Amino acid sequence: MLKILSFKKGGIHPHGRKSLSETVPILELPKPDTVIIPMSQHLGAPAIACVSKGDVVITGQKIGSGESFISADIHSSVSGIVKNIQSVVLANGIETNAVIIETDHSPENQIDFSSSDSELIEKYTQSELLTIIKDSGIVGMGGAAFPAHVKFNIPKGKKAKYLVINGVECEPYLTADHRLMLEHTHEILEGISIIAKIINAEQVIIGIEANKMNAAHKIEDLIDEKNLPFLVQPLKVRYPQGDEKQLLKAIIGKEVPSGGLPIEIGAVVSNVGTAFAVFEAVTKNRPLIERVVTVTGDAVKNPGNFRTVVGTPIKVLIEAAGGFKENPAKMVVGGPMMGFAFFDLEASVTKGTSGILALTKNNLDYASETACISCGKCVMVCPMGLQPTRLYKFIDSSKFSDAMALNLMDCKECGCCSFSCPAKIPLVHGFKYGKKMARKK
Amino acid sequence: MSEENITIKNQLIIETSPQIKSTQTTAKIMWTVVIALLPAGIWGVIVFGLKSLIVLLVTIAASVLTEYILNLICKRKTLFDGSAVLTGLLIGFNMPPSVPLFIPIIASVFAIAVVKWSFGGLGGNWMNPALAGRVFVFFSWTSGMNSWKTPSALSTMPDALSSATPLGLFKTGMMDYTGGPVSTSDFLQNTGYTVSAAAENISVFFQKTLGIVLEPLNIDLFLGNSSGCIGEVSALLLLLGAVLLLYKKIITWHIPVAYLGSFALLTWVFGGIPYEFGYFSGDVWFNMFSGGLILGAFYMATDMVTSPITSKGMIYFGIGVGFLTFLLRFFGSLPEGVSLAIILMNIFVPLIDRYIKPKVFGKVIKKGADK
Fold first, then answer.
1. How many beta-carbon pairs under 8 angstroms link A with B?
2. How confident is the model over A248-305, as pLDDT tens digits?
3. Which of A402, B24, B192, B313 is the least crowded, having the fewest Cβ atoms under 10 Å away?
């Protein structure tokens, strides 16, 4: 195993709380009676629904078409009848159209996705593989849900020297990627081979945080067995180690230029979950209609990891985890550092939903906001080298251009500053607002 | 939706990420600093007697009361954030043990009302309130601020005798001194200054067992056997508290190291110049452990509100304070320079923060194109 690496500047050590669910194997859930499939589950333009009310759909059928350059197709995750197409509010607050399908649960309408054919990987050309990924609606599974076919389509004149696979999962509580690496090691490695083939990567490095060494060893053993040219790179447990900029800085030692993409330093970063989805799409012809979701937090009875179809209402997942053992004080979709608080348990799981957290009052026991004492903690923990306290003061007095001059746009809202602030100032809230206002101008 | 789910829905907190936060608060920081100061304060009370405890209690009470009144006026609730108690305690630490009580009261009211609240309360002040309060009364009531008391551990001197601080004695003594280079310790002992028997014994012990020569005078200063302000005399106990602050990450090494390092270097190289002893003849250890240097370096210069926010800025700030302390101590008319040096550098903090910025991740710095 290689020496443990890390990014150097900034970062924090929040309590991991991963032990709640990291040893619980992935449980496949039965399909729910109704699924709500939003048309905007990815970064970029929403897909356009291509079915109408009353249509009969089968599992895997395309129901939403991503027509813009940055968009992704959406597929039905069940077989059944389209009950309605209506506007819904997602757990992350985005309002979008959704196709609501009543599941018929009939066995003859199912497509068998169980057999895989690894030889297909060799057979397809690069552009054929890219088309399959596009047609399967694959997006980045790490959280941002950037359409994968756009990312893997290397622009002319650029070269993807490195393919860095992100198995860091640095957000506290989340264990979905960890379980996936342990239970689907073979599939992930095959998926990585496919991505490496598409982008012509010279070097493949799999980054895994040091709190998941069992997964790192398992992957390394299988790499040796299959004699693959991949490296497993253990990384220090430190948030935000899994952010692609910090990850690349740690692994290849280069900084992604401000406002730029990893390809500018010759790298493509992809999540282990994405590699898994790519494998499923290429060898089983199965579009992205399922994902692993960690359902955890002190308020749920039996925290665990569940494989469920896209569109499953969140309340179904809570029930699968045994329901609440006490009333949650806050519900979060995603990880606690960058995830969104939501209130509607009817909202559904999307392609980017990595976790559902039910936090209790005790988890949230912090003081109310006080004046900034210029302690400099936010400056110290900012991995981007910004000065959050000064940015916030500018935004607070509506001096957006001053905030822009201090590189507001380089903030990626990782939350290190707000987390560490002893005065409990909602810094990230200010930056989200400030960016919005600055863009308006 | 079930009824239970509706109740849950109505009670859920919605806020922007991050959804969890650290348990550190401003109040915890302030109270931790108070705790870190306690050993040195208790030592002060032991060696200078009950009068010094009264001074400490009076400064704390006056600060908290002023904070309370300003809370009422400004309709704010900051009484329990610990900052007023800390300011009061620090003012008490910076008072001579026999000071007339009206002086610490005025210092406290000035610190809280003028230095802190007239700029908007905690976080708004641009000068360390405790130090500004001390400097204000120091220049207003100079004789009252020189009411020194011999520590009880120096038993060879009669208890009632009030003796100047070692720094003060050295400075006044040196005014008429015309001889060649002399060690601080010899010079002070020639003027009648006595070191404690304990320090003598410790010095002998170190010389016999380890072969290290330690001046008994510096041992006295390090342990806290010298006259001075209530809280500043024991470098040892102040350093002990500083270890707690460093461990709890309330202060970082940058300011104390830059401050003490630059001061020590300047003292060593140029410390002999005012007395015509030549270069590289300054007495570093005597100057390090006498006066308010340790208290200033770890507890006053590191005040979050009035020090820079970047590590690099903190280093520049520390060097600036070290330089000014050196200038004031060796070339000024007063024996002490720590308080003035720190509040002078406080003035430069906004400037430092404006120009010393951390390197932004992924920013390409084009040579010459930045200006």
1. 185
2. 999 999 999 998 999 999 999 999 999 999 999 999 999 999 999 999 999 999 999 9
3. B192
Buried-state track A319-343, b at ≥16 Cβ within 10 A, e below 16: bbbeebeeebbbbbbbbbbbbbbbb
pLDDT tens sequence across B174-215: 888 888 888 888 888 888 788 888 888 999 999 999 888 888
- Is A311 part of the contact surface with chain B (CB cutoff 8 Å)? no
Do residue A120 and residue A256 come from a single domain? yes
Phi and psi for A342 in degrees, rounded to 5?
-140, 165
Query: Contact, A438 vs A408, CB < 8 A?
Result: yes
Residue A315 at interface with chain B, using a CB cutoff of 8 Å: yes
Residue B90 inside a domain? The answer is yes
- How near does any CA of chain B get to the CA of A366, in Å? 6
Domain boundary residue, one of A234, A250, A284: A284
Averaged over A229-234, what is the pLDDT? 96
Average pLDDT for chain A: 94
Q: Give the model's confidence band at B153: pLDDT under 50 very low, under 70 low, under 90 confident, else very high.
A: low
ipTM of the complex: 0.90
Q: How far is CA B133 from the centre of its chain?
A: 13
Measured distance CA(B123)–CA(B144) in Å, rounded: 31
Q: What are phi and psi of A62, to 5 degrees?
A: -70, 125
Cβ contacts of A259 on chain B, cutoff 8 Å: 362
Least Cα separation, residue A191 to chain B (angstroms): 30
Number of structural domains found in chain B? 2
Which residues in chain B are closer than 8 Å to A11, comparing Cβ atoms? none
Which of A1, A440, A417 is closest to A206 using CA atoms? A1
Q: Is A7 an 8 Å CB contact of chain B?
A: no
β partners of residue B235:
none
Which one of A9, A332, A371 has the shortest CB-CB distance to B19?
Answer: A332
- CB distance B25–A367 less than 8 Å? yes
Residue A419 distance to chain B (closest CA, Å): 4
Q: What is the DSSP letter of A431?
A: H
Q: Do B12 and A258 touch (CB under 8 A)?
A: no
Q: Confirm whether A397 is domain-assigned.
A: yes
Single out the residue in A253, A284, A315 at which a domain terminates.
A284
Element holding B120 (H helix, E strand): none
Contacts of residue B199, defined as CB under 8 A and 6 or more positions apart, other chains included, come to B216, B217, B219, B220, B223, B225
pLDDT category at B368 given cuts 50, 70, 90 is very low
Higher-scoring residue by pLDDT: B40, B174: B40
For A240, the domain range is: 113-284
Coil, strand or helix: which one is A57? strand
Q: Which residues pair with A267 in a beta bridge?
A: A162
* Angle between helices A126-135 and A185-199 in degrees, nearest 10: 120
Domain containing residue B94? 26-146
Question: B24 to chain A: which residues are within 8 Å by CB?
Answer: 377, 420, 422
Q: How far is it, in rounded angstroms, from Cα B371 to Cα B352?
A: 18
Integer Rg of chain B from CA:
23
Q: Taking the alpha carbons of A419, A421, A423, A427 in that order, is the dihedral positive or negative?
A: negative
- Pick from B126, B146, B166: which residue ends a domain? B146
User: Measured between CA atoms, how close is A359 to chain B, in angstroms?
Assistant: 9
* Same-domain pairing of A409 and A268: no
Residue B329, domain member (yes or no): yes
Q: Evaluate whether residue B264 is within a structural domain.
A: yes
| CB–CB contact A258 B364 (8 Å) | yes
What is the four-CA torsion angle of B151, B157, B162, B164, rounded to 10 degrees? -80
Give A353-377 pLDDT, tens digit per residue: 999 999 999 988 778 899 999 999 9
- A296 within some domain: no
